[in-house]
Amino acid sequence: MSNVVTEEHVQYCFNVLIAHLKKEPFPNPTFRNDEYPLFVTWHKQYADGQHHLRGCIGNFAPLHLHEGLRKYALISALKDRRFSPIQLEEVPSLTCAVSLLTNFEVADNYLDWQVGKHGIWIEFKQQNGQTETATYLPEVIKEQQWTKEEAIESLLRKGDFKGKITTEYCLNSITLTRYQSQKLEMPYKGTI
């Protein structure tokens, strides 16, 4: 895959967040306005080298990069329900990652994918018959050092499945779509 994610994409997300927090106009992007499904991820870096997730939200529908990066830079920084909204004084200690998603394929079964290469998006039925979805980007499974089965179980729980997880359930209930991602993560390069 050619280099589709650039430093400019990542710095644009920082600049959008800073403009929003300072109540200033958004910057005008100068990069190409191609369409991709995308995710924006924020991590906070600590002096001891540790980094912790501060927000990660995206969309599987292809979006024009100008609008999509602006929208998800803010949603992931301010509206990820798992975290408090990012504050302006945190920005110098943050990294931002842009993930552009490609090569979507419906898998033959729930184990038809490769750890470290594919992200996975599952659609499954709750015990009440309601359809749910959940996803992990490719790097998540590798970072957690999960097997395929552990990743599927974790993803079902992430999607709020409360029933018993069995091989038969997985074979009969899960539709898995695999995809690839190009990701670039960088710290902020500037002053607030």
Automatic annotation (TrEMBL):
Which N-terminal residues, if any, form the signal peptide? none
Q: Which InterPro entries match?
A: AMMECR1, AMMECR1_dom_sf, AMMECR1_domain, AMMECR1_N
Gene3D superfamilies tied to this protein: Hypothetical protein ph0010, domain 1
User: According to its UniProt record, what is one Pfam family this protein matches?
Assistant: AMMECR1
Q: In what residue span(s) does the AMMECR1 domain sit? A: 1-192
Q: Which PANTHER family match?
A: AMME SYNDROME CANDIDATE GENE 1 PROTEIN, AMMECR1 HOMOLOG
- Name the chain's protein: AMMECR1 domain-containing protein
